Amino acid sequence: MPNAPDLPAHVRRLVDEIETEIGEDGAVAASIEGGHLPPVRPATGNGRVEDAVRQILAEIGEDADREGLQGTPERVHRMYTELTAGYHVDPERLINRAIFDVGYSEMVVVKDIPFYSLCEHHLLPFFGSAAVAYIPRGKVIGLSKIPRIVEMYARRLQVQERLTQEVADFLMDRLAPQGVGVVLEATHLCAVMRGVRKPGTIMTTSSVLGLFRTRDRTRAEFFAHLARPAPAP
Fold first, then answer.
1. Superfamily of domain 9-88
2. DSSP secondary structure letter of residue 37
3. Measured between alpha carbons, how far is residue 16 from residues 50, 89, 152, 166, 180 in Å?
4. What is the Cα–Cα distance from 72 to 53, expressed in whole angstroms?
């Protein structure tokens, strides 16, 4: 549902930040007046989310009218609209003509991309870092777009396996490269706070397409890049 016209202002701003860099032609640049971003206003809606939160609070034995919880239903509504803003991102505005013809055919790797998402099974967060690589076939994408692609899919109700695949498929579809590799490592609070309750558990998922799948040497090169420490600042 890209560009939904009835998005609350704070969600529209998040969507704009994912889609458009400051200074690019787009909604973020247009929204800055005198160097100030527009004020954040409360989420709007029909009140059903707030009513549902009040019912949940009652079901667990809480009083939604006590002082500490009086604003909680509205805050929860606002939180979920922020954390699921990726549903509203327009991929065309995100890319914004940042695919370039370049005669480069070696591996491009962008790693240590932080992400935060919501597990669709329990609505608890999972978070970690992503590494994305591709081998161009005459076209490259602007560096900042790769973290934005991860962000677009992370700000949805997700499972880590699907999130990994969606990032890989997006780059494969838009760039038609020789291959794409994506690795995500994340901590899931549904495994840390509930269920097995095992702090420190890390889940790793990967998606390899094209040469990353068919050529062992290419896949090994990708994983070797991931093992190298980041350069000191």
1. GTP cyclohydrolase I, N-terminal domain (1.10.286.10)
2. P
3. 26, 8, 11, 20, 26
4. 8
In the chain, which segments carry CATH 3.30.1130.10? 98-227
Can you state the percent helix, strand and coil of the chain, rounding each to 5?
Answer: 40, 20, 35
Determine the straight-line distance between the first and last CA of the chain, rounded to whole angstroms: 40
Q: Report the C-alpha gap between 124 and 190 in whole angstroms.
A: 6
Residues of the chain with CATH 1.10.286.10: 9-88
Percent of the chain with pLDDT over 90: 74
Give this prediction's pTM. Answer: 0.84
Tokens of residue 228, six digits: 């190298």
Closest CA to 174 of 156, 151, 149: 149
Neighbouring C-beta atoms of residue 173, cutoff 10 Å:
10
Q: What is the pLDDT of residue 4?
A: 61
Query: Hunting for tokens 């860099």 — which residue is that?
Result: 21
> Band of the pLDDT at 5, cuts 50, 70, 90?
low
**98-227 has CATH 3.40.50.2300 classification:** no
Catalytic residue positions? 119-122, 160, 188, 190
The CA-CA-CA angle for residues 75, 76, 81, to 5°, reads: 100
